[in-house]
Amino acid sequence: MDLFSKVSRTAGKHSPLEEEVRKLPVPVSSVFLGKDGKIRPAAFRQTDMALVCKGHDRIRQVFPKTITKGGSAILEAVAASESESVAGKRVAVLFSGGPAAGGHNVLAGLAAVLGSNNTLLGIRKGPGGLVKGDIFEIEKESINSIINMGGFDFLGTDRTKIKTAEQFEKVKRTVVKNRLDGLVVVGGDDSNTNAAFIAEYLENEGIDCSVIGIPKTIDGDMAAGRYLPISFGFDTATKIYSELVGNLNQDAASAVKYYHVVKLMGRTASKITLEVALQTKPAVALISEEIAEKNMSLDSIVDHIARIITLRRFKGINHGVILVPEGLVEFIPEMGRLIAELNTVLAEYQKDITDLPSVEHKREFLLPRLTPQSAQLMASLPPDIQEMLILDRDDHGNVKVSQIETEKLLIEKIRYRLSEMKRHTDRFFGAGEGKIEASAEQVEDFKKVTLSTQSHFLGYEGRSSKPSRFDAAFTFQLGLAAGSLVLSGKTGYMAAITDFHKGGRVLALPLTGLVTAEMRHGKEEFVIEKSLVELSSPSFKIYAQNRDKWAIKDCFSSPGAMQYWGPTSRQVPMIVALDQDYPDFDSFDMGEEKQIIIE
């Protein structure tokens, strides 16, 4: 074949790698394998394990049907059903929220466990498509073409929150019209909260349709301790980010002049930043949960980073990588207060502010209506950050925190602090609390430093990749579990896998056991609580024990490209291995490997 033909032949997801990745075998837990070795639905039994949600009595009032029916007991898959298989069931699946690697293997798992005697349907464009009734039957050939492929493009996704009576009525209409026996919702905490409410609503309406959630989010904040160590997509995303950060570490050491300040996706939890820090050993990695715990101000964070840059300079190192979590600003107490005050004032004076002709006029209007501390902080921020805080709001009138260029804010603040240190050496160097011990020669050398920076935001690059071997296996098992739960007639559960290192333990977690009541914007809301970095966890402790050494020496690692074959192809996320006390990082084992072909 000539080269011109090869270029054409690789179009439509037929690159040489994609062709080979489709053929990769996927582990299948023994609970899904019949005596003949074929995939079959698993049976579930009730265990003595339970999830106890916060405010259980209040949650029971909101979910009287599903919490009574399922309680908070956890179910466990015990064995493949050897009896005559269930037939005639119609099961629909949707993706919700941002993409995460492995979603297509969820579809493959569902198709495999439903078999030829049941029907798998897809819902286009997420919960919005469910409300509209945009449903189609998924063909086996389509599933075979997307096995081990990345993205959510086969179904599409959206972020519709199903809240109103009209929306729930339309969901019921979709379920009844399409004769659905099951609905599988693939998403994060908001999406699985949606699933909990839909399950309750359909039960209350007398509609016999199982609603099952699947935990998806690259942030890793959809987790439940030992029952569900991580959500799918996290491993792939962090492997991609770690490769890129490793490359930037190498570049910094090669060019010997740049500090690369990298903002990493993770609106609430800093798990991505922690995982990437463990993989790459950067000069600095900020962990939002620690900053909140220590009540660190923006200035104290800037001081911390400026100190590390200075100490590295004393050792002849004028470069490095600084990792910043996407949601950092919300965890800095003073920034959190400023944002909360702005949300209140902007809501109260919305019309007055809208009528003002310029950002400067809006700023002058706002400052006197803030507390003195928040007004002072606001005035100290770079003009573009102030503008973003004032103008860039979401549908609820709140600041779009994820779009604040925190990395650039820190760069400006650090640059100014280093300039101060050069101008006022007596305040920053010498004996005394908070000062940096330095010789006269070191101080003079420091004055010659020029801070050269590059800023980066790594986010979308990690969401739609072909899944890692871990995520490919994880998601296929989740699909098998969700399909088995539907065929068993269960509703209001989330499929979960744990014990990744010894065969994969398949569980069903009651969604009502994950939901908690929170006060948001002055009213009670029911949500699945996000899983954050725990400062007492082994993964954080090992980082905390090593970061001082990594800060003042070039100890970086460059883990390289994600591997489908080779030494790290079977690696689980480091934070999972550490926090779950696995014997090794390269230790995932989720069952007997099989090449998946849907027939």
Care to describe what's here?
The chain has 599 residues and is an alpha/beta fold. The mean pLDDT is 92. Helix 5 (103-114) links the parallel strand 4 and strand 5 (119-123). The relative contact order is 0.17. The chain has 3 domains: 31-78 and 88-233 and 464-528, 3-Layer(aba) Sandwich (Rossmann fold), CATH 3.40.50.450; 235-326 and 406-462 and 532-562, Rossmann fold (3-Layer(aba) Sandwich), CATH 3.40.50.460; 331-404, Orthogonal Bundle (Arc Repressor Mutant, subunit A), CATH 1.10.10. Helix 10 (234-255) crosses helix 11. It is built from 25 helices and 18 strands.
Q: What's the number of helices?
A: 25
Report the span from N to C terminus.
Answer: 31 Å
Helical residue percent band: 40-55%
Strand content: 15-25%
Mean pLDDT: 92
Counted up, domains total 3
CATH C-level label of the largest domain: Alpha Beta
Radius of gyration: 26 Å
Largest sheet: 10 strands, mixed
Within the CATH hierarchy, at the fold level, what is the topology of the largest domain?
A: Rossmann fold
Low-confidence stretches: none
Question: What overall form do the CA principal axes indicate?
Answer: globular
* DSSP, total strands: 18
